[in-house]
Write a structure and sequence with these properties.
The protein is mainly alpha-helical. The protein has one domain: Up-down Bundle (Amino acid/polyamine transporter I), CATH 1.20.1740. Helix content is about 70%, strand content about 0%. It has 18 helices and no strands. Helix 4 crosses helix 15 and helix 6 packs across helix 7. The longest helix is centred in the middle third of the chain and has 46 residues.
Length: about 475
């Protein structure tokens, strides 16, 4: 038996869990190394984490006003229909499916698989096909043992989330408690080891004695923003949150504040125990994780095993949280005839099981498509287009709906949302020049939504005409 109504079962505590669970993943362990390779300065790396955190907080506060006013299942998809039009809303939803959320699931699962393989060595699979490529760009069978592990994880977590949203959120809660405990143990261990030199993390000099450019700062912040990515995902489950117009803004704000504090603490620790040349070497090696090497430096091999297990748990939690929330947008689209019809149904647990299945299949295919850093840079480029669009919506809605009740109004209006919009524009332009390949792939995947929209519109014309904006 299937049903058509989602069940409002998430209170403020679980909203915060969903926000934090969607943010804290691989970035807190891996991204300090590519940032060091770009900036050649520990102080500037920390500055970029702080700047990224501030912009993320400003974006979250701006998003919270829109979410409080328009809270509904689908997140920005539902918001954009009111702010802009149905086509732009569809293009966003399609972008989530084609690149933003599904590639996020793929890259998180990939890091989980790498960590699993470092603990339990999985024998090579199909080594004779490792050099097979599609256009010399994609190598689907390279490291196939790792990729297959990632695919199996996605399938298992998808199945768990078909059992109901409280089951999925409960798994995330348990995992987050383990992650926070583990990270605090790492920080405490570094302090107690005598290897910590806090002054290193604030050293603004560069190892190559060259000045830090604005372009380098923005390029490094692509990595930082992957660490902060995911805070807006709670909007996708707006139809399953109790009192969403109050709990979504509160959950977003509190969740981002928690992550800000944690990231400053743990990244200062990494930069205090590892030199910039060491971090650059970790990045260029391609198969090392900064957090593992940092802990190895003061706890030895047992410490490396501990952090590998912690990364395993963290990426498991973030992959689960991302799978949990992302499929709700496709469900909302399908109810309006703008996605595959079967995605619009719920199972007995009030869960969009078919939407989860479609998401699972595409995410598994993306696992085979590229490297971790290629995927994450592509995601950040794409997602900041829509972060800017949502923040612009604050200005548009204040003009369109000036008298509508707003449970939350963005602090620092109009300066705070204006800063976010300007920053998004600069980041997008800089990425086109600094990471043209990732930007091009992201744009192509998003624009495939144009012919798809035309096809759905023709196929479901009778249904769409009945749906009110």
């Amino acid at each position: 038996m299937s049903t058509s109504q989602l069940n409002r079962s998430l209170g403020l505590r679980l909203v915060i869990v969903v926000v934090v669970g969607n943010i804290i993943g691989s970035g807190v362990y891996k991204k300090v190394a590519p940032m060091a390779a770009e900036l050649h300065s520990s102080g500037w790396v920390l500055v970029c984490w702080i700047l990224g955190g501030i912009i993320t907080l400003f974006g979250a506060l701006s998003n919270a006003e829109v979410a409080g006013l328009l809270a509904d299942t689908g997140g920005e998809y539902a918001y954009y229909k009111k702010i802009y039009n149905r086509f732009f809303a569809f293009l966003f939803g399609w972008s989530l499916f084609a690149v933003i959320q599904t590639a996020g699931i793929s890259s998180l699962a990939y890091v989980f698989a790498q960590s699993f393989n470092s603990i339990v060595s999985v024998p090579p699979l199909l080594p004779s096909l490792a050099t097979f490529s599609i256009g010399g760009i994609f190598y689907p069978f390279a490291d196939f043992n790792v990729k297959l592990t990632a695919i199996i994880l996605i399938i298992i977590l998808t199945w768990i989330n078909t059992k109901g949203i409280k089951t999925g959120a409960g798994v995330s809660t348990a995992i987050l408690l383990l992650v926070f405990g583990g990270i605090l143990i790492i920080v405490g261990g570094a302090v107690g080891s005598g290897h910590l030199n806090v002054s290193h993390s604030f050293d603004m000099s560069t190892t190559n004695n060259s000045p830090v450019t604005i372009s380098a700062v923005f390029t490094a912040m692509l990595a930082a923003f992957w660490g902060y990515q995911g805070w807006a995902s709670v909007g996708y489950v707006g139809g399953e949150i109790k009192d969403p117009k109050k709990n979504i803004p509160k959950g977003i704000s509190l969740g981002v504040f928690i992550i800000l504090g944690l990231y400053m603490l743990v990244n200062a620790t990494y930069l205090s125990v590892l030199s910039i040349p060491a971090l650059e070497e970790i990045y260029h090696s391609g198969n090392k994780i900064a957090a593992v090497e940092a802990v190895r430096s003061f706890w030895g091999q047992k410490g490396a095993l501990f952090i590998s297990v912690l990364i395993l748990i963290t990426t498991l939690g973030c992959t689960n949280a991302t799978i949990l929330v992302s499929c709700r947008t496709y469900f909302a689209m399908a109810r309006e005839g703008l996605f595959f019809k079967k995605v619009a149904t719920l199972n007995d647990a009030h869960t969009p099981a078919n939407s989860l299945l479609f998401q699972c299949v595409w995410a598994c295919l993306l696992v085979l498509s590229g490297t971790f850093d290629q995927l994450t840079d592509m995601i950040i480029f794409a997602v900041f287009i829509y972060y800017g669009a949502t923040t612009l919506g604050v200005f548009i809605l204040r003009r369109k709906m000036p008298d509508a009740p707003r449970p939350y109004k963005v602090w620092g209006y109009p300066l705070v949302p204006a800063i976010v919009i300007l920053f998004c524009a600069v980041l997008i332009v800089n990425t086109i020049f600094s990471r043209p390949r990732e930007a091009a792939i992201g744009v192509v995947l998003m624009l495939t939504g144009v012919p798809v929209y035309i096809w759905f519109k023709k196929k479901n014309k009778a249904i769409i005409n009945k749906v009110q904006y």
